[in-house]
Amino acid sequence: MIKVLKFYSPKCTPCEALTKNLIDKGLESVNIFEDMELGAKYGIRKVPMLVFLRGEEEIHRVGGVISAQEFDNILNSL
Q1: H/E run at residue 39
Q2: What integer pLDDT is reported at residue 56 of this predicted model?
Q3: Cβ of 76: how many Cβ atoms within 10 Å?
Q4: With the C-alpha atoms ordered 68, 3, 57, 55, is the resulting torsion angle positive or negative?
Q5: What is the pTM of this model?
């Protein structure tokens, strides 16, 4: 099963757009200011950032705003 972490900042306009696009996708949201340790673990340098995991292994990542269709295409390709 693939788990997706969405790294964001509360005052980030692109982060808000990504959240609206993927509202029903069951992402785990990670506020980079509240969970700096997890952000550091995955080397997050910009937001928004989606990190796709299979178990504990990172298998893909996407930065920036994507549509729900793009998200589905990525999931189907993994």
Answers
A1: helix 36-41
A2: 92
A3: 7
A4: negative
A5: 0.95
